[in-house]
Amino acid sequence: MSREPSRIGALATLIPYILRYRARLLCSFLLVVAVVAIDLIQPWLVKEVIDCFTASSSPDSGAVLLISAVYLALVLLSFGLTFLQELWLQRTGLSIVRSVRIDLFRHMQRLSLRYFDQNSPGRIITNVANDTETLNTFFTQFLATTLRGGISLLLIMGFMARLDTVIAMCCFLLLPAVMLSATFFQRRLQAANAAARHRLGVFIGYLAENLGGMRIVQIFHQEAKKQRQLDERNRAYFNASVEENRRFLIFFNVTEMLADLTVAALVWFGGNGVIHGVVSFGVLYAFVGYIRRFFQPVSMVLLQMSSLQSAIVASSRIAQTFSEVPDISESQGAEAPTSEGRILFENVSFAYRAGYPVLHDINLVIRPGERVGFVGATGAGKSSIMNLVARFYDVTSGVVLIDGKDIREWPLADLRAVVGIVQQEVTLFSGTVIDNVRFFRTDISEERVRDACRMAGAESIILRLPDGYHTMLSERAATLSAGERQILSFARVFLFNPRILILDEATSNLDSRTEVILQEAIHRVSAGRTLLVIAHRLSTVHEMDLICVLDNGRIVEKGTHRELLARQGYYQRLHHASKTMAVRPELL
Ligand SMILES: Nc1ncnc2c1ncn2[C@@H]1O[C@H](COP(=O)(O)OP(=O)(O)OP(=O)(O)O)[C@@H](O)[C@H]1O
Ligand SMILES: [Mg+2]
Predict the structure, then answer these.
(1) Which residue stretches of 304-445 are H helix?
(2) Are 536 and 505 in contact, with CB atoms under 8 Å apart?
(3) How far is 258 from 177, CA to CA, in rounded Å?
């Protein structure tokens, strides 16, 4: 994970969210003001009581009682208001986090696969989970503390000045010293905080990658090495966090000590003043009470600068994600043609990364209802062609047309409804079998799902599961074999019944008998539909109306099985090789 440049302007990303919750934020901030004011009146009240006792030989007990009652009422009020204020602010902070997460996920879902090719899952997860959490801290801590600190500082200065101008001026002179010390520590704290966050990001990224690849780790028996590597990252994070804490503690204690020293000086000089009758005892008491409250806001606000810094970094990353433009954009007002399933590739070239083309000058006409096989070596570009038909990526040049219309002009939802894909790797989601087949579309009846499963030959597999159709599958569906997952995925496309059916190595995990049964089902289902089949096993495509042979991103031969054999070219060599391998399995 890299450290992106951060700008204070990135905080502007938050403006819409602040506006959305402006009423609650405002209420909560008004409450902050009220709580601070109440808090500051308290030393004043005690001073009044003390002065009442010391000023006259017969103190007015009624006034003392009244002041005590007011004090008690203020304490209770302050308790209630603080509770309410914290509750609102926390709730608002969490609501903002929730909204940002929803918007981020919605935005990510619109991004093309290219974004997911380029960003590791660890980085994306950190973005959605951690960066948003940082914003919560920003709202609930930075904003609240700054506001509370700013207001209390102003009020305290006012109160102090009213109590005794000379002592107040002496205290104010200390302000630059406190600020200087806080700034000094704050810089160091900020650096430590940034380092700890960076280490945490690295740790999470590493964890995500390795948990995802646990199978490979175990197979290559790399557990010890991976453990060591994780330990290193964990230790780096630990060290960074310890350092952050150490700096915080030093800072905290130094500030406390400064406050204590000031109180000591105040007691010394103020005490002299009391003895000489220049200052009342009540005023001295109130000053001692205010001095603590005077230091706190300055140091706390400066301390929160690290949370501001984190918020800036987090919002920069969030802003960066929001600024990713979905390169698969929908043309406005597009209308889907009624689909027949005609596909046309015109001079199509394609590159996943600029400068590294994987498909060159593809020209191909596929008529409605035609069955087309694609063969070629690994990495020849077969799956890439299918990615273009489903518009997971856009062509670099040329055009792909379905039913005479450039697919970039199709509404995406309609296009994806017309094109169905079964891949070698099947992803299932956590949910029941039924929900996985109908893809959580509750408007599709269970009966239809069962029909589709029966057609794909999945029913016998499903009924063997503990709860049949209602068995919960885990996220990675590790409870089902690769072949079983593939059959479920067939049931999925049979149910949605697309006009154009793409099978990308879709039967590669099946045994020959199951494959034959499924081929028949495909044959039945695909009647009148366009069928595109990628197969390494040439026998799968013998019967197709058209076979395209790909080599290095180009279609080098086209024709029926018979025509291609007669041509004695690349296909014939492939065919020969596959037969030889069938006879001499040791070559495999
Ligand atoms: N997401 C991607 N980003 C960058 N390059 C990719 C991506 N997917 C595939 N490629 C590259 O594109 C080329 C064609 O890949 P493609 O997946 O189309 O091959 P294929 O013919 O389907 O191979 P196989 O038979 O192994 O499935 C390969 O060189 C591959 O490295
Ligand atoms: Mg492929």
Answers:
(1) 305-323, 382-389, 412-418, 433-437
(2) yes
(3) 9
Residue nearest to atom 7 of ligand 1 (CA): 352
What phi and psi values does residue 498 have, to the nearest 5 degrees? -75, 155
Rounded Cα distance between 63 and 171, Å, is 31
Mutate to test the pocket of ligand 1, among 120, 352, 552 (most ligand atoms within 8 A of CB): 352
User: Is 0.85 surpassed by the pTM of this model?
Assistant: no
| Domains annotated on the chain, with CATH | 8-323 (1.20.1560.10), 343-587 (3.40.50.300)
Residue 176: CB atoms within 10 Å: 9
Residue 532: its pLDDT value, please?
93
**CA gap 5, 63 in Å, rounded:** 61
Amino acid at residue number 452? A
Taking 50 as the pLDDT cut, the residues of the chain under it are: 1-5, 477, 583-588
- 202 vs 238: CA distance, rounded Å: 12
Tokens representing 114 are 């290219």
State which residues have CB under 5 angstroms from ligand 2, the bound ion.
383
pLDDT at 371: 93
CA atoms of 567 and 572, how far apart (whole Å): 8
**Distance in Å, CA 358 to ligand 1 centroid:** 8
Query: If we measure between CA atoms, which residue out of 156, 178, 180 comes closest to residue 288?
Result: 156
Residue range 163-219, pLDDT digits in tens: 888 888 888 887 787 778 778 887 888 788 888 888 988 898 888 888 888 888 888
Residue nearest to atom 12 of ligand 1 (CA): 358
Q: How many CB atoms lie within 10 A of CB 584?
A: 9
Angle CA(178)–CA(181)–CA(183) in degrees, nearest 5?
105
Q: What DSSP string runs through 118-173?
A: HS-HHHHHHIIIIIHHHHHHIIIIIIHHHHHHHHHHHHHHHHHHHH-HHHHHHHHH
pLDDT of residue 397: 93
Amino acid present at 266: L
Return the pLDDT at 3. 44
Could you give the angle at which helices 165-212 and 223-275 cross, rounded to 10 degrees?
A: 170
The closest residue, in CA terms, to atom 16 on ligand 1 is 381
The whole-angstrom separation of Cα 98 and Cα 316 is 18
Give backbone dihedrals phi and psi of 308, rounded to 5 degrees, phi first.
-65, -45
Residues sharing a CB contact under 8 Å with residue 139, sequence separation 6 or more, in sequence order: 25, 89, 92, 93, 96
